[in-house]
Amino acid sequence: MKRMTLGLNLGRVDPSATLFEGTRILAHVEEERFCRVKKAVNRFPIEAIKYCLAQVEGGLDGLAAINIGFDLDRFTLDVPVYYLEEWAKYPDKPAEAARYEIGRLKEKHPDNVRARITAELTAAGLVTGSMPPIHWFNHHYCHALSGHLASPYRDSLGIVADANSEIDTFSVWECRGTRVERIYAKPLPHSLGWLYRAFTLFCGFDAYEGEGMLMGLAPYGKPDPVLAEKVARILPWRTDDEGAFEFDVDAEYVYLGKRWPGNDKLTEKLVATFGEPCPPGTETPSQYYKDLAYAVQERFEETLLRMVDRFVAQTGLRNVTLSGGVFLNCKANGRIWKELDSLEGIYIVPVASDDGIGVGANMAYAVENFSTERSDYALPDVYLGPEFSNADIKRAIDSFSLRRTVRNDAQYKALANTLGLDEAQVRRDLAGDAGHAQLKALAGQHLAGHCSHVEDLATYVAERLAEGKVVAWFQGRMEAGPRALGARSILADPRDMASLYKVNAKVKFRQVWRPFCPSLLDSAKDAYFFKPTQSPFMINTFGTTPLAKDVAPAIVHVDETARPQFLEPSANPLFHDLISAFHSLTGVPIVMNTSMNIKGEPICCTPEDALNFYFLTDADVLAMGNYVLEKN
Question: Which of 18, 193, 256, 606 has fewest C-beta within 10 Å?
């Protein structure tokens, strides 16, 4: 009996592939990591699929099934009927909505999905026999199942919230063993995800990356009763017929109203209410937008908090599992845990957005075909991507070719500094073939003169961090999901606020006000955080203690919280050794940790990606396997 299954996210954003053997996850990777385009918008995850199939004997022929986390049958009747009803209710919907709806119905039609998968796999030369069967499952069911079965709980209250699924935007599930049953659903147009995205765009941020920026901006705002009242109009609260808490979203502000001529992604009603939007790309939005971000985040958090509280009381389930893209909002997650004393546990699946829907789709297939035993399912870690041996890394160093695409002026300067050249000369050289060849040769000379092989890597890197160096840390299998967890990380000393400024300005090339996160020994969490619980995936926030603020100020956000990774020795032994060595040197069991990527680019996947990162930023050290590169 074949036991390998391939789960796919074929959505417009974050296409990905997930490989299971029976009930056990073997691999999960996002297409963006291979194509090097952030979010890989509108791409088919062919390279991610190739990576997964390379681990299957017989390749595609070895699969029991390909699994999709959308109920495609609903797009032949239920969803078209909903769209027609929506047009009747909102006759002023813009033409963009019709184009979106027609495109979505075509994209999700079962015949078209089958044809697309078959055509893409055939074009890639992966089809050598017959195609495996393709199965599909309800979107929110897949999210809820991944949240519950990946968690440590036998029984849990599953909450799913995202922009939209087939039709639902918010759902609640009673999860017992492997049985996950829906007990509540809120359909379109009441989408918390789309509401948050509308304000993300209004405040000048990107639609797909910017939600985290809006969340990070909110603590810089102040309470404003006028703004709070306006936001409450768009996200009103009420009680249902039985007196239970309910929310709605006035979608005419969000996406169903007439579009604003200045930006067709915003509605006229939103702009009329809140004024001129912040220009896209603004480095630091003005206090007005900070106050607006505060008001939106506050109402958003309170809505989620009250909904969770409602269903904890209704079901008696004291462990909550959260999934769907809305729960990438770690501030909301932290508030739920902090304020609901009725909870015994909280778990947020690390691949909470549609990036991870293939995990839930494979789990749905496994429950039906392989096992209904709860103990057979787990997600012990997210180190599920490519890894490279020391020999692979040495070959990459010896054959390195500097890329020619440079994103911003600071990268030209970083490259010039590294190679000891004039910045204007670097610009000229990168523009021509001969100049690029010369830069490539100089980069090779730098690598030859600055590369060493280090046996005690943890101690060596801990010493560099304690000296104030910024270290790019490239080790083991790449992480799945949006967080760096000690495989593709940028590390710095949390004791010095200069670490925060340097990494933002000269390594990540992003706004200086954006916070960074701590990775720390799990055994030390009680000393540095209030009411800590398990947090292995850096997707929850906790209040910081006076000790944290005193000895590790660079990881404390302006609202005195942080989004930590609590690291057990078994989860990542080498990274744990590094933090332990830093602890021995400094007395602080914490390192500042952020993802190894430049703003606007995906996390580094290969040694070649990491080497380009080293040359095109002001990172001081790159540790790949046992090889260490260090700038003067």
Answer: 606
In contact, 251 and 194? CB cutoff 8 Å: yes
499-554 residue pLDDT tens:
999 999 889 988 888 899 999 999 999 999 999 999 999 999 999 999 999 999 99
**Which residues in 195-283 belong to E strands, given as ranges?**
237-239, 245-247, 259-260, 263-267
Choose the weakest-confidence range: 31-45, 93-107, 483-497, 618-632. 93-107
CA distance 447 to 399: 10
The C-alpha atoms of residue 549 and residue 232 are separated, in whole angstroms, by 34
What pLDDT is attached to residue 377? 98
Average pLDDT over residues 101-127: 97
Distance CA 584, CA 176 (A): 44
pLDDT value at position 125? 97
Task: Please give the average per-residue pLDDT across 584-608, as a whole number.
Answer: 96
* Residue 90 to residue 544: CA distance in whole angstroms: 46
State how far the alpha carbon of 440 is from the alpha carbons of 346, 469, 595, in Å.
50, 25, 26
What whole-number percentage of the chain has pLDDT above 70?
100
92, two tokens? 């002023």
- Helical packing angle, 110-123 and 95-108, nearest 10°: 70
Distance from C-alpha of 300 to C-alpha of 92, rounded to nearest angstrom: 27
- Taking the C-alpha atoms of residue 123 and residue 36, their distance in angstroms, rounded to an integer, is 21
Six-digit token string for 342:
């009725």
Largest CA distance in the chain: 75
The per-residue pLDDT for range 195-240, each reduced to its tens digit, is: 999 999 999 999 877 899 999 999 999 999 999 999 999 999 999 9
Q: How far is CA 243 from the centre of its chain?
A: 36
Is the Cβ–Cβ distance between 42 and 12 less than 8 Å?
yes
For 632, the enclosing helix (H) or strand (E) is none
Residue 283 corresponds to which tokens in the numbers above? 């480095």
- What pLDDT band is residue 562 in, cutting at 50, 70 and 90? very high
The torsion of the CA quartet 479, 625, 619, 503, rounded to 10 degrees, works out to 30
Rounded to a whole number of angstroms, the distance between the first and last alpha carbons of the chain is 57
pTM of the model: 0.97
Closest CA to 116 of 52, 182, 46: 46
Per residue in 518-528, pLDDT (tens digit) is 999 999 999 99
Beta-ladder partners of 245: 239
Peptide bond into 189 cis (omega under 30): yes
d(CA 330, CA 321): 13
Tokens 């000891």 found at: 420
Task: Tell me what pLDDT residue 237 has.
Answer: 98
Beta-bridge mates of residue 246:
238
Give 547-582 as a DSSP string.
Answer: HHHHH-GGG--TTSEE--EEE-TTT-HHHHHHHHHH
Strand partners, 101: none
Asked if residues 188 and 100 have their Cβ atoms less than 8 Å apart, the reply is no
Phi, psi of 373 (to 5 degrees): -85, 120
**For position 468, what pLDDT does the model report?**
97
Buried b (16+ CB within 10 A) or exposed e, 289-315: bbbbbbbbbbbbbbbbbbbbbbbbeeb
Could you give the CA distance from residue 582 to residue 564 in angstroms, rounded to a whole number? 17
Confidence of residue 407 (pLDDT cuts 50, 70, 90): confident
